[in-house]
Design goal:
This protein is α+β, with helices and mostly antiparallel strands. The chain is built from 7 helices and 6 strands, in the order H-H-H-H-E-E-H-E-E-H-E-E-H. The protein has 2 domains: 91 residues, no CATH class; 95 residues, Rossmann fold, CATH 3.40.50. The strands form 2 sheets. It has a 4-stranded antiparallel β-sheet with strand order 2-1-3-4, with no helix packed on it. Helix 2 runs antiparallel to helix 3, helix 2 crosses helix 7 and helix 3 crosses helix 7. The radius of gyration is 22 Å and the shape is globular.
């Protein structure tokens, strides 16, 4: 098993909020204030502090580590086509990729370059997270954002249908996407490029989440903590 698979297997036997911390770190690549507060809330609910609240199925579900498993086959993306209700992208065009050559996608501002890149970052794997794929805000559509991927897996050409909300495909998750926003995830300081194995960053984020919950619990049970009523003068 890969390090990420081992961590996912290990954390299944831990508290739900531990697993949720790893999940958020796995999907968001980092834990910000919003994610840490969400983990704290899950810990409170799991501990029974809010009797009227229950943990959602998404929080309790098993971790999805597709793309972080051992890779045994070569996967190449050939094209993206049949795009439906993704931003303002035209639905009758196909973006082809030449392999193994370098591909350059160019065009004027607003022609959809970043939107295609965002589809790739959501369908495949990318460090630094990805913006949510949304529909066309100028035209109402009954369809969820979707597209058709043509891929080559171990020499065999296949078609993979993707749609927002569908379970991730392990073949597409084996493809890594890198862009300028991904580079910011690696740059630690000026003129220095930092790299940390992903399994190690998961454990560091988990330790940060545990410390965040611990500090908040200590503050809440601190004697004399809370509002004090001053006497009227």
């Amino acid at each position: 098993m890969t390090p990420v698979e081992k961590i996912a297997h290990w954390v299944e036997g831990k508290p739900v909020w531990w697993k949720h911390a790893v999940r958020l770190s796995l999907y968001n690549e980092t834990l910000g204030r919003e994610e840490l507060d969400e983990i704290l809330q899950v810990a409170r609910v799991e501990s029974g502090l809010y009797e009227e609240a229950e943990l959602s199925d998404d929080v309790k579900s098993k971790l999805d580590v597709k793309g972080y498993e051992s890779e045994s086959e070569k996967v190449t993306v050939r094209s993206i086509s049949n795009v439906v209700n993704v931003g303002a992208l035209a639905e009758d065009q196909e973006l082809k990729f030449s392999s193994p050559n370098l591909n350059i996608v160019y065009g004027d501002n607003g022609t959809g370059k970043s939107t295609y890149a965002n589809i790739l970052k959501n369908v495949c794997l990318s460090r630094g997270g990805a913006r949510k794929v949304i529909g066309n805000v100028f035209e109402e559509s009954p369809h969820s954002p979707s597209s058709l991927f043509k891929v080559n897996v171990a020499g065999e050409d296949l078609e993979v249908q993707w749609q927002v909300g569908f379970e991730s495909d392990e073949r597409l998750k084996s493809v890594r996407v890198f862009d300028s926003s991904s580079s910011e995830h690696f740059v630690a300081k000026e003129d220095e490029l930092g790299y940390k194995p992903f399994g190690l960053s998961l454990l560091e984020d988990l330790a940060e989440a545990v410390d965040h919950v611990k500090r908040n619990v200590h503050e809440e049970i601190m004697p004399g903590n809370g509002f004090s009523v001053l006497p009227r003068i």
